[in-house]
Backbone:
């Protein structure tokens, strides 16, 4: 999903607070390191107490902590460039009347595009509840960034697209696709996980 370029809401900046803003950045980095990039979320009592103590609105602090919790969504977006070919994958997993599959991936010079499908196998052709999925790649010694580019569907079919960088090897036997189910609005993991 392409992002609009950021434009500051004003051209004005009070230089007297520059050192404080830098300290905020330093504290955010320290927070990330201490939490091992897994900060969780402060409970309502803490947020309420801090709002009263430091004279903020609770909604503002909740919004701030949501942004800190979801820092990964702000990482740079890689746009696939230089299409090379489609690679057949033809792998699947089936559970509780749902058929999960990856039929192919698009191979680009700088990324791979993984097409993930979910199909109902029973007669009732409608999804009662929508799940999101996080993709990670298991490969010997290689690290991959996997970004959910969204999805959709109708009736008994859903599809999701993931951008994987760097591009995956052409030989799909060199890696595994690991999917973790999440539920909104903050994509909490459900514990359901499978490998294709």
Residues:
């Amino acid at each position: 999903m392409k992002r609009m370029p950021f434009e500051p809401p004003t051209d004005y900046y009070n230089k007297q607070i520059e050192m404080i803003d830098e300290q905020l950045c330093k504290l955010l980095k320290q927070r990330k390191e201490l939490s091992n990039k897994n900060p969780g979320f402060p409970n309502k009592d803490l947020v309420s107490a801090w709002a009263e103590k430091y004279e903020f609105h609770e909604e503002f602090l909740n919004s701030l902590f949501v942004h800190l919790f979801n820092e990964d969504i702000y990482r740079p977006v890689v746009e696939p460039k230089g299409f090379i070919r489609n690679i057949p994958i033809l792998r699947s997993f089936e559970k509780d009347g749902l058929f999960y599959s990856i039929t192919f991936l698009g191979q680009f010079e700088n990324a791979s595009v993984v097409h993930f499908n979910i199909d109902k196998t029973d007669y009732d052709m409608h999804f009662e509840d929508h799940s999101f999925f996080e993709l990670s790649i298991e490969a010997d010694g290689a690290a991959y960034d996997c970004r959910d580019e969204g999805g959709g569907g109708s009736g008994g079919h859903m599809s999701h697209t993931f951008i994987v960088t760097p591009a995956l090897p052409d030989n799909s036997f060199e890696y595994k696709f690991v999917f973790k189910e999440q539920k909104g609005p903050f994509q909490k993991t459900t514990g359901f996980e499978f490998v294709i």
User: Anything to note?
Assistant: The radius of gyration is 21 Å.
